Amino acid sequence: METTRFCPSTQLQPGDICAQTVRTPSGRTIAAGTPLSPADIQELRTLPGIHVRRTIDEAARAKAMPLALRAYFGQDVCSPVGQTLLQLRAQAEAERLLRGLPPLAPATPRSVAITPPSLPPAVDLTSFEPPELPSTAQQLLGALATDSIDAEKITRIVAQSPSLAGRLLKLVNSPAFGMPRRVDRIDRAVILVGARELGLLATSILLIEHFGVVSRAMVDMRTFFAHSIAVAAAARHLAQSAQPQMAETAFAAGLLHDMGRLLCLSIFPERAKVCLEWCRAHGRMVREVEAAFFGHEHASLGGAMLAAWNLPEPIVQAVAGHHAPQGFLAAVIHLADCLAHAAALGANGDPVPPRAHAQALELAHLSPETLMDAAGAAQANTDAFLAALT
Q1: Residues 227-240 pLDDT 10s
Q2: Contacts of 243-249 spanning 24+ positions with Cβ under 8 A
Q3: Can you give the pLDDT at residue 337?
Q4: What span, in angstroms and rounded, lies between the C-alpha atoms of 209 and 96?
Q5: Is residue 245 exposed (0-12), middle (13-18) or buried (19+ Cβ within 10 Å)?
Q6: What is the pLDDT of residues 193-221, one digit of tens each?
Q7: Count of CB atoms situated within 10 Å of the CB of 342
Q8: Parallel, antiparallel, or unpaired: how do β-strands 22-23 and 17-18 relate?
Q9: What is the mean pLDDT of residues 256-274?
Q10: Structure-derived torsion over alpha carbons of residues 98, 100, 106, 108, reported in degrees to the nearest 10
Q11: In this structure, are 92 and 40 located in the same domain?
Q12: CB 250 within 8 A of CB 239
């Protein structure tokens, strides 16, 4: 089996097949389809990374399949969605075996009969007041709250922060956005991507950054951010397949889908630490027990927080419902989340992958074939997006 993904230059291996034509720092050209030699890899070390193809042999996949089945124990792996998720996890486990890394599958069997401790609710959604936002995020949300978006105003707000403007330009110039030529000004990016869409992307980046200080003992924030970006990339691809006009909104919703988890990790670190440790010890999904530890599960908390900040209703509903989707955008985010977990693209602290909703494909107006394509898009672009946004 062959996979294509963006690979950081520090992780390139002899025999990796170059999936794109690359010009090295010395000016030499490595054509697409060329197996990389040790000398090639040494010369590519100064680049952030390149897209490569790797072949996983059947023996490695056979060893990996029991690990994949353990991860999805108790879930429907016979449905079209389940089959895709199982294949992706087997592929991820096989890659780890070949690299000498420990398996992803939880070592502890699921203990569904054990009841988690019940604590007084940490959050009351009826009187919930979200944390105060940075000034730039507040200005962007104010500009996005109107029916008629002022493109010049969005440009001025983003331009106030050179760091934010630079990351947005790197994002827009990444291969996944497919710009015909390099975009070097924010006003041009606003025209090409759309004022509302670019404003949402900028706001999403700022919101995630605002809660980015979390103890590494609980969650590695770079892998957390990588998971959010992978969901965003997969969601954008899925939305483009069904409702192209929703692609950038889906990307923003994907970035924000775990804001409730981030809130718990940053505002209630002691409870979050106990919750994560309990789930790892008993092989349980964090979402299954969040209500016992925080009073609500993270999707509801994230939706309430985004609503209080006056984000667009479609994004609020998608974040709040991404584990129990009832509409198109929530279903897209749900499927993208399942794909990112299955392919092990980043991690949000949950030791067990989420359970796929039976009607998600129908709600998202998608065919099973689009799932593997979306996973491929996420695998190919997550590291590139991460490099652009961090």
Answers
A1: 998 999 999 999 99
A2: 243/328, 243/365, 246/314, 246/328, 246/329, 246/332, 248/193, 248/194, 248/197, 248/198, 248/200, 248/201, 249/197, 249/200, 249/312, 249/314, 249/315, 249/329
A3: 97
A4: 29
A5: exposed
A6: 889 889 988 998 888 888 766 777 778 88
A7: 28
A8: unpaired
A9: 89
A10: 130
A11: no
A12: yes
**SS3 label, residue 8:** strand
Domain containing residue 51: 1-55
Residue 17 parent element (H or E): strand 17-18
| The model's pTM | 0.83
C-alpha of 343 from chain center: 11
- Which of these, 341, 331, 334, 322, lies nearest to 230 by C-alpha position? 341
Q: Which of 177, 189, 179, 183 is nearest to 236 (CA)?
A: 177
Contact 158, 198 (CB under 8 A): yes
Q: Residue 93 burial by CB count (10 A; 0-12/13-18/19+): exposed, middle or buried? A: buried
Is 381 found in the same domain as 263? yes
Cβ-based neighbours of 275, under 8 Å, separated by 6 or more: 116, 264, 286, 289, 290, 293, 294
Q: What is the DSSP letter of 366?
A: -
Write the pLDDT tens digit of every residue in 347-366: 888 888 999 998 999 999 99
Does residue 37 form part of some domain?
yes
For residues 265 and 359, state if they share a domain. Answer: yes
Classify 50 as helix, strand or coil: strand
Confidence at residue 204, expressed as pLDDT on a 0 to 100 scale: 86
Q: Going by C-beta distance under 8 Å and a sequence separation of 6 or more, which residues neighbour residue 99? A: none
Q: Is residue 158 part of a domain?
A: no
* CATH number, residue 289: 1.10.3210.10
The pLDDT assigned to 111 comes to 59
Q: What is the CATH number of the domain that holds 50?
A: 3.90.105
For 390, the token pair is: 């961090």
Most confident range, picked from 122-131, 309-318, 332-341:
332-341
Residues 223 and 93 in one domain: no
Give residue 154's pLDDT.
Answer: 94
- Residues 366 and 314 reside in one and the same domain: yes
Burial class for 79, CB neighbours closer than 10 Å (0-12, 13-18, 19+): middle
Please, what is the angle between helix 195-210 and helix 162-172, to 10°?
A: 120
- pLDDT tens digits along 149-172: 899 999 999 999 999 999 899 888
